[in-house]
Structures are given as structure tokens and as C-alpha cells.
């Protein structure tokens, strides 16, 4: 639906844990700023080249992602397309996308055979596609591994993705602060697929945050599978089993559409809800502030736009504005911001449908 230290690296939306250096995408992907008068460009640190908006060497970027059968995945593709259009020196060769591992490997192999300059790959299964990542790197095509991480760091030049542990941590902190003065507060959790490492990390982060609030107890947890239908069915079960609780954390805004339907059908308004990922429907509800949904924790699909920035910098042999190094970093971990009615207008432009 968005972390690379040992305690906070989120296994990606459908992926696995990867350890590496975590850095702020905001710091990395914004242009250098200075107090120079307008119109005078500030030099890069140590006179090293940095990626910027000025046209440079022409770069063909091959983009391969899974089938866009989920709002977040569709937003991944759209963000990549829109970012590439921003650069007159970038040609984007985007595949149709597939949830079949063999089909996606074939699509990536076609891009390798075309000799694109850089590859951006969001693998259907990071482990299963590791070999094709290795093949691209061996062919001299640098790979930006997006979100679901390959099993070997040799299969990519740079990884960029979200923070699943951080999602849970920040959801727990938000709920904790809202309920810190309420004796014997109860919370419930509507998780994603328990077969995925990312779901376990989101739960772990949530549980770790709640340890700081001894007055709060998690009394129920139900796993869904990131669909509207599953969200509605599993939420209905939770509501029936829990006649009273104070807060709900739902891992995914798409399944949250179904959860909110179940909540409305049950006529329940006696708790607050926190969502996950950053869908427009969730942000609209937060802004309206006339229901239980009060916040959502981001897993930004804008990571694909940032991946295009990184791929362009790789293709042009540049570093990143705002950093001193000649090369782009080995990994970029996005922050899981909490969107509330106070800041929702800032994040609405980055939401997805």
C-alpha cells in the first residue's frame, strides 16, 4: 500500500525485510537550498554534480511493476508516469505489469534486451525475481529496487520503499496520545495478510508503541487481505465480538472502505479509527471529520516518482541535491507520517484513489 534500520526497516507491501542504511527521502530528493539571491544557483557541495531539473544526458528508464489491481499499486504506476513527464531528458519504457512471476521476469528481460539505461523494478515477489535483478546488474544496467526488496543486495544499486514497522509505531503513538488519560482503554487491530512479513512488522510497531501506555490494552486482532470485501467481513466480526472499545487501527485504507461500511451498518460511533497507506477516500473522511476515521498513517506511493528521480540521477552519473556525496545512496526509507484534519490539506495532493 510505505526503512532500513534493524528496528524500523519495513518489509515492503508484499515483500521481505532488508537491512541497510536508512535516509530521509525528503532530504535526498529535494533540490539544494541556500540564502543566495534569486536567480543565482548555489553550487553543489565540493563542486560535485547533483541531479536537478535542468535537462541533461538523455536517459531511458525501464519501469516494471506488478499488475495495478489495487489502488496503491495503480498509484505507483501513475506517479512514475507523471514524474517521467517532468523531465525532457527522460524516456520511460513501462511494462504492462503482471502478478505472475514468470510473466514479470519476461517483461524485465525484454527491457534488458532493449538495453535501457536504468531499470526501476517493483517485483511481484522480491525473492523470486532476484535472479533477473542480478542479470540486469551483470548486463551493466543499474537497478532501482522499488519497495518489495530483492533477496540479494547485488541485484540492485539502490532500494527505495516504505516503513512498515514505522506505520505501526506511529499509529500506536497517535492512538496512545489520544487515550493516555483514559483508564483501562481498549484498542483493536484490523491487520492485513498474516502470511506477509509486512503485516507482522506493522503489528510489531503498533504493539511496541502501546508498551509506552500501560493504561491501554489491545483486546482483539483480526487479519483481512487488503480488499474492501475482506475489510467489511472481518470488521463485522470484530464489532460483534467487541461491544466496547476505544480505538481501531486498520492497516490498509482499501480494506478500510469495507471496514467503514461495517461500522456504519452496526451504527457504531463510540471509538476512533486510524487507517493506513493514504487513500483519498480516507483523507476526505478525515477532512470532513464527521465519522470515526480521524487519521491515516502513510505508506506513500510517491516512492515511484522518487525512484524515477533516483534512476535519472543514476543514468546521468549524478548524486542527489541536498547531499554532499557524488553517488546516490544505497537505500532510501520513506517516513510514515500521520495525516489528521490539522495537516490533511498538505497530504491530499499525494493521496491515491
Automatic annotation (TrEMBL):
Residues 34-56 are annotated as: Disordered. InterPro entries: Peripla_BP_I, SBP_2_dom, TAT_signal. PROSITE patterns: TAT. The keyword Signal applies. GO terms for molecular function: carbohydrate binding. It holds the Pfam family Peripla_BP_4. One of its GO terms (cellular component) is cell envelope. It is found in: Cell envelope. This is Ribose transport system substrate-binding protein. The keyword Signal applies. Residues 61-318 form the Periplasmic binding protein domain. Belongs to the bacterial solute-binding protein 2 family. Gene3D superfamilies: 3.40.50.2300. Keywords: Signal. It comes from Streptomyces candidus.
Amino acid at each position: 500500500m510505505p526503512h532500513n534500520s534493524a528496528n524500523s526497516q519495513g518489509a515492503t507491501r508484499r515483500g521481505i525485510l532488508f537491512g541497510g542504511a536508512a535516509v530521509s527521502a525528503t532530504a535526498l530528493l529535494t533540490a539544494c537550498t541556500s540564502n543566495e539571491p534569486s536567480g543565482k544557483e548555489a553550487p553543489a557541495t565540493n563542486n560535485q554534480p547533483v541531479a536537478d531539473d535542468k535537462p541533461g544526458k538523455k536517459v531511458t528508464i525501464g519501469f516494471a511493476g506488478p499488475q495495478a489491481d489495487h489502488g496503491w499499486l495503480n498509484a505507483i504506476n501513475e506517479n512514475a508516469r507523471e514524474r517521467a513527464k517532468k523531465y525532457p531528458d527522460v524516456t520511460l519504457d513501462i511494462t504492462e505489469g503482471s502478478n505472475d512471476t514468470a510473466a514479470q521476469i519476461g517483461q524485465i528481460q525484454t527491457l534488458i534486451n532493449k538495453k535501457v539505461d536504468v531499470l526501476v523494478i517493483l517485483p511481484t515477489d522480491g525473492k523470486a525475481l532476484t535472479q533477473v535483478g542480478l542479470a540486469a546488474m551483470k548486463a551493466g544496467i543499474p537497478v532501482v529496487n522499488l519497495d518489495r526488496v530483492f533477496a540479494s543486495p547485488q541485484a540492485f544499486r539502490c532500494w527505495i520503499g516504505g516503513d512498515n514497522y514505522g506505520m505501526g509505531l506511529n499509529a500506536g503513538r497517535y492512538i496512545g496520545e489520544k487515550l493516555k488519560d483514559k483508564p483501562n482503554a481498549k484498542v483493536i487491530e484490523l491487520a492485513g495478510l498474516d502470511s506477509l512479513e509486512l503485516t507482522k512488522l506493522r503489528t510489531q510497531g503498533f504493539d511496541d508503541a502501546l508498551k509506552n501506555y500501560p493504561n491501554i490494552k489491545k483486546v482483539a486482532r483480526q487479519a483481512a487481505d487488503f480488499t474492501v470485501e475482506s475489510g467489511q467481513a472481518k470488521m463485522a466480526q470484530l464489532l460483534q465480538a467487541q461491544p466496547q472499545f476505544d480505538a481501531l487501527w486498520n492497516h490498509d485504507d482499501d480494506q478500510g472502505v469495507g471496514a467503514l461500511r461495517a461500522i456504519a451498518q452496526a451504527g457504531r460511533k463510540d471509538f476512533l479509527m486510524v487507517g493506513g497507506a493514504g487513500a483519498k477516500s480516507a483523507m476526505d473522511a478525515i477532512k470532513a471529520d464527521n465519522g470515526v476515521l480521524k487519521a491515516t498513517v502513510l505508506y506513500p506511493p510517491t516512492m515511484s516518482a522518487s525512484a524515477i528521480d533516483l534512476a535519472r540521477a543514476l543514468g546521468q552519473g549524478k548524486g542527489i541535491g541536498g547531499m554532499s556525496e557524488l553517488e546516490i545512496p544505497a537505500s532510501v526509507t520513506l517516513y510514515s507520517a500521520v495525516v489528521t484534519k490539522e495537516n490533511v490539506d498538505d497530504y491530499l495532493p499525494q493521496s491515491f484513489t
